Amino acid sequence: MGSETTLRLPIINFSDVGHLKPSTSQWDLVKSQVHKALEDYGCFEALFDKVPLDLRKAIFAALEELFNLPLQTKLRNVSRKPYHGYVGQYPTVPLYESMGIDDANISQKVESLTNILWPEGNPSFSKTVQSFSEQVSELDRIIRRMILESLGVEKYLDEHMNSTNYLLRVMKYKEPQTKEAKLGLNSHTDKNIVTILYQNQVEGLEVQTKDGAWFTVKPSPESFIVMIGDSLLAWANGRLHSPYHRVMMTGNEARYSTGLFSVPKGSYIIKAPEELVDEEHPLLFKPFDHVEFLKYYYTEEGQRDEAALKTYCGV
Ligand SMILES: O=C(O)CCC(=O)C(=O)O
Ligand SMILES: [Fe+2]
């Protein structure tokens, strides 16, 4: 499907965030870059210096410690919601393992999961995960505000922000020890609102353009990859793109990555605002509950379905 290209994602600068305030000319400039990137690619590279260097290093040390736990211990992280707990040991993606940390910006929630994994406690792990998630969530809120403003529907900002919580999913992709690329994670679109990815120095993330070409994302150590999920695509009535992406691994080094996912809360009904529906833009998706959609997506049929959102609630 498509060929490899040497494309580079748009790079948008969110550093000096203290000065990046709504209604300033700098804000409006960054907002127009965000809107264009999300229409064209559904993702971009964000420079964001709010997360200090020592915390960026600490998060990968914490991930190594976490994935080094025995499998039996990692399996204790179970969740009622699909794909929110421990995921791994899949024959189709043998290099891949991940852990979901729900409400990762809330100390108490992170501490209770930490205590399940380390009954003797591990305060430095929970502190690192919580601080990292809190700092990155600030970028999520800036971007979502910019998106709503650029769609002209900022009056829904409070409702929109209150309708989600933050899941930090952390990933390890084992080194395949080959020069030939091996599948790390299947091609998919994210199902949530906004995803913010961060990775160690090992590349592997590939994004597909609207016309079907795959390219490798090569973020600098300072940058985060921001991506739109299907729930925001539906809410925006198709005005933004949610890109297919996958992970391909080569070489002798493990890849660690983190994804901060803003996820619609269960029983909140996602429905495009009336301002985004008109003759030129007929309603594309019926109102839906994200958790119910996930239940369909994780069925055997849903996993094979390349257009799961459309099948589930397309008009
Ligand atoms: O590891 C990555 O960079 C991508 C992970 C991803 O796409 C996901 O967890 O949805
Ligand atoms: Fe993804």
From TrEMBL:
The keyword Transcription regulation does not apply. GO terms for molecular function: dioxygenase activity; metal ion binding. Residues 163-264 form the Fe2OG dioxygenase domain. InterPro entries: DIOX_N (IPR026992), IPNS-like_FE2OG_OXY (IPR044861), IPNS-like_sf (IPR027443), Iron_ascorbate_oxido_reductase (IPR050231), Oxoglu/Fe-dep_dioxygenase_dom (IPR005123). Keywords: Dioxygenase, Iron, Metal-binding, Oxidoreductase. Pfam families: 2OG-FeII_Oxy, DIOX_N. Probable 2-oxoglutarate-dependent dioxygenase that may be involved in glucosinolates biosynthesis. May play a role in the production of aliphatic glucosinolates. Belongs to the iron/ascorbate-dependent oxidoreductase family. This is 2-oxoglutarate-dependent dioxygenase.
